[in-house]
Structures are given as structure tokens and as C-alpha cells.
Specification:
The two termini are 23 Å apart. This protein has an eight-stranded mixed β-sheet with strand order 1-2-4-3-5-6-7-8, with helices on both faces. The protein has ten helices and eight strands. By secondary structure, the protein is of the alpha/beta class.
Length: 309
């Protein structure tokens, strides 16, 4: 059994608040896992994983990033982070949640899990605050070509000069998701997310999963991804921090596994040693709701238990 609590915390951006949840085990707390969710989704989708891990003595905590889920003031906030530096704001919110949670569970091993966009934030986080963690799980990540990310970011800046940072650009959205559904055309635009058609339909029926990012959020996200191409930045990550990379071999975000291995290689080149990786044959992007989700849950728990030994 576990205890699920929803709560609100102030964002590090003045005047903004974040929706969050905490799932606690009934007995002894063996570890804490903090979540960093992906773009155009929301943290409550992670509650089944949280309940599973709470059954093994692990507290799971997470919040909706700015512009997502319950962390909006009005629908105009969907897909908008913050100005002047939305990338910094998302990272600062993640770190504030870490500090807040550590106060509540002092001295307990503390892990971070990031999925998709949240994995790019988790990877930045490791370079800035990795010494505060016992390990991290990087899920559904990738390694986009630097020139392409620079081009997309410049496009955002040029469009914002004309339309403002709150503008939602179909062009930038198409640049970001170009070719993701290739070979899956016919049923929906988002079959690349999952082999489970019911889960894809559930996603497409939820307004919290169907808005378009503003130029502000795209620019912020691209800025963050570019930092991960900087060897000097990557060199700030603790070299012995245990990392687990999880992805599907049919996930276009990770270039069907190749981008995941490139991301791992960039860390190894920076001297990071303790990296495990598992690629699930045929699995697509959203491992926690994929058809093999129980296997993924069990692998996450097993890796956490290994670190706690």
C-alpha cells in the first residue's frame, strides 16, 4: 500500500505555481525518486510507476513543468515556460523540488528519472547538481545533430522577433517532430509514441497532451539541448554517478537506439564511467505506458535496488 498526495508549490518564477504529487510507502523509506516528465504531457501519467515503486519502499515525487498539466494559470500558459530564460526556470524548479524533498527525507538515497524532454533536463541537471544525487535514469532520450538544433533555435528567435515569444509556430513544431511517424502512417499522427493503440488514443483525447509549444518553450528546450553538446559542460558531471539509460529500438526520438548510444558516448568521452543501458526490441517512445510497461517497471526497480545494496 502507498499514500498518494497531490500538492502545489511555488515555482522559482515569481507568481507561478506548480502542481505536484508525492507517493509514499507505508513502511520504511529506502530511497526517493524524483521525476522529470516529457514535453506536452503531465506528471499524473507517472502515478502507476509511483505506486509500483512505493510498494518497494521508494518515495516518488514529481511536478508538472511550467506550461504543463496543473502548472498553468490559464490555457494560454500551455507550452509556455518563462522569460527571459525558460531553460533556467525549468532547471531551477527541478532543483527546488529536490531541496524541498530532501528536507523531508534527510539522508535517504536520492535518484532522478527524466523521460524525453525531461531526460534532456535531467542530463543538464546531472552536470549542475549531480553531486546531490545517488544516480539517475535517462529514458526516451536522444542526441540530435548540433547544427539542426542551432537552426531550429535561430528560427525560433527570428519568428519571435515578428510574432512574440507566446506565438505557436507550426513550422517549428514540424521541424521538431519531422519524420517521427514515418512508416506508421495511416492510423494517427502519434503512433510513434506507443504500440498500444488504446494508450495513443487516450493521449490524443487529452488536452494536456495536445497543445503546441510556444516559441519560448521551444527556444528554451533547444538551448538546453545545445548545452549537452558542450564537452566542458558535460565534464562537470560526477564521473562515478550510476546512470541507467532505457529506450525502445523503435523510438524515433532516440534515432531507434542510435541516438541513445551517441548520448552515452558523449558522457563516456567526458569520463563518466558507471553507465548501464537497455534497449527494448520494438518498443516505441513512451516506455511507461508501452505494451511491455511491466518489464520496464521491474527493470527500474531492479536497478534502484542494485544501487541501494
Amino acid at each position: 500500500m502507498s499514500r498518494m498526495t497531490d500538492f502545489t508549490v511555488p515555482s522559482t518564477v515569481p507568481g507561478r505555481t506548480l502542481h505536484a504529487f508525492c507517493c509514499e510507502p507505508e513502511g520504511e523509506v529506502r530511497a526517493v525518486l524524483q521525476l522529470s516528465h516529457g514535453m506536452v504531457e503531465f506528471i499524473d501519467r507517472y502515478k502507476p510507476l509511483a505506486e509500483y515503486l512505493a510498494g518497494q519502499g521508494i518515495v516518488v515525487v514529481g511536478h508538472d513543468h511550467l506550461g504543463h498539466g496543473g502548472s498553468i494559470r490559464t490555457k494560454a500558459d500551455y507550452g509556455y515556460f518563462a522569460e527571459p530564460d525558460g531553460n533556467r526556470a525549468v532547471l531551477d524548479d527541478l532543483h527546488a523540488m529536490t531541496l524541498r524533498t530532501k528536507e523531508r527525507y534527510p539522508g535517504v538515497p536520492y535518484f532522478l528519472l527524466g523521460h524525453s524532454m525531461g531526460s534532456f533536463y535531467a542530463r543538464q541537471y546531472l552536470c549542475e547538481y549531480g553531486q546531490e544525487l545517488s544516480g539517475a535514469i535517462i529514458m526516451g532520450t536522444g542526441h540530435q545533430p548540433k547544427a539542426l538544433v542551432q537552426f531550429a533555435r535561430s528560427t525560433c528567435r527570428a519568428l519571435a522577433a515578428v510574432h512574440g515569444w507566446q506565438y505557436r509556430s507550426k513550422l517549428v513544431a514540424n521541424l521538431s517532430f519531422m519524420g517521427y511517424n514515418k512508416g506508421l502512417e495511416g492510423r494517427t499522427t502519434h503512433d510513434w509514441l506507443n504500440r498500444d493503440a488504446a494508450e495513443v488514443d487516450k493521449y490524443l483525447a487529452d488536452e494536456r497532451c495536445t497543445f503546441t509549444f510556444t516559441l519560448n518553450a521551444y527556444y528554451s528546450m533547444f538551448s538546453g539541448i545545445l548545452r549537452l553538446h558542450d564537452p566542458a559542460f558535460l565534464a562537470r558531471m560526477p564521473k562515478d554517478l550510476p546512470l541507467l539509460f532505457l529506450a525502445g529500438t523503435a523510438d524515433p526520438v532516440g534515432d531507434r537506439g542510435k541516438g541513445v548510444l551517441r548520448a552515452i558516448q558523449s558522457l563516456k568521452a567526458a569520463g563518466v564511467q558507471n553507465i548501464r543501458c537497455k534497449l527494448y526490441p520494438g518498443a516505441r517512445h513512451e516506455l511507461l505506458v508501452e505494451t511491455n510497461r511491466q518489464e520496464v517497471f521491474a527493470d527500474i526497480a531492479a536497478w534502484l535496488n542494485d544501487q541501494l545494496r
